[in-house]
C-alpha cells in the first residue's frame, strides 16, 4: 500500500490496533477516533477492509453467528502493524515540523524591505 494512507484506511488500521473488531464496531470506533468528522457507511468500510486484506494489512480473525447473523472480526496483520507504525511516525514528524514553524510565527516581525528581500532570496 502506498503511503500516505487515506484517512479512512489509517483510522481503520488504528482502530484494529486495539484488537480484533467486527464491522459495526469499526464504524463506531472510526467515528470516535475522528471525533465525529468521519462516519463510514457499511459499503465504504467493507470495500476498505477488502482492499486492506488484499494488501495483507488486515485479515479475518474469526467468524461468529450473533442473533442469527454472521459477524466477521478483523485484525491487523504484522504487515499492517508495521505500516501503521511507519505512517504514524511520518505523520508525527510532519506535525512536529508544522508545530515548530507555527511557534515561530508568534514572534513575527513586521515585513521590512530588507526582510522582504531576504525572504524572496534577494540580497539584504
Automatic annotation (TrEMBL):
<dbReference type="InterPro" id="IPR052509">
    <property type="entry name" value="Metal_resp_DNA-bind_regulator"/>
</dbReference>
<feature type="region of interest" description="Disordered">
    <location>
        <begin position="98"/>
        <end position="124"/>
    </location>
</feature>
<feature type="domain" description="Transcription regulator PadR N-terminal">
    <location>
        <begin position="12"/>
        <end position="85"/>
    </location>
</feature>
<protein>
    <submittedName>
        <fullName>PadR family transcriptional regulator</fullName>
    </submittedName>
</protein>
<dbReference type="Pfam" id="PF03551">
    <property type="entry name" value="PadR"/>
</dbReference>
<dbReference type="InterPro" id="IPR005149">
    <property type="entry name" value="Tscrpt_reg_PadR_N"/>
</dbReference>
<dbReference type="InterPro" id="IPR036390">
    <property type="entry name" value="WH_DNA-bd_sf"/>
</dbReference>
<dbReference type="InterPro" id="IPR036388">
    <property type="entry name" value="WH-like_DNA-bd_sf"/>
</dbReference>
Amino acid at each position: 500500500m502506498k503511503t500516505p494512507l487515506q484517512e479512512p484506511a489509517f483510522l481503520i488500521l488504528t482502530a484494529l490496533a486495539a484488537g480484533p473488531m467486527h464491522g459495526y464496531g469499526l464504524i463506531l470506533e472510526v467515528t470516535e477516533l475522528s471525533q465525529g468528522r468521519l462516519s463510514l457507511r457499511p459499503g465504504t468500510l467493507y470495500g476498505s477492509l477488502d482492499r486492506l486484506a488484499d494488501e495483507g494489512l488486515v485479515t479475518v480473525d474469526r467468524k461468529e453467528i450473533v442473533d442469527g447473523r454472521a459477524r466477521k472480526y478483523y485484525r491487523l496483520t504484522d504487515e499492517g502493524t508495521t505500516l501503521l507504525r511507519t505512517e504514524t511516525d511520518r505523520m508525527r514528524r510532519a506535525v512536529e515540523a508544522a508545530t515548530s514553524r507555527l511557534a515561530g510565527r508568534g514572534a513575527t516581525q513586521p515585513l521590512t524591505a530588507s526582510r522582504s528581500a531576504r525572504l524572496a532570496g534577494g540580497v539584504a
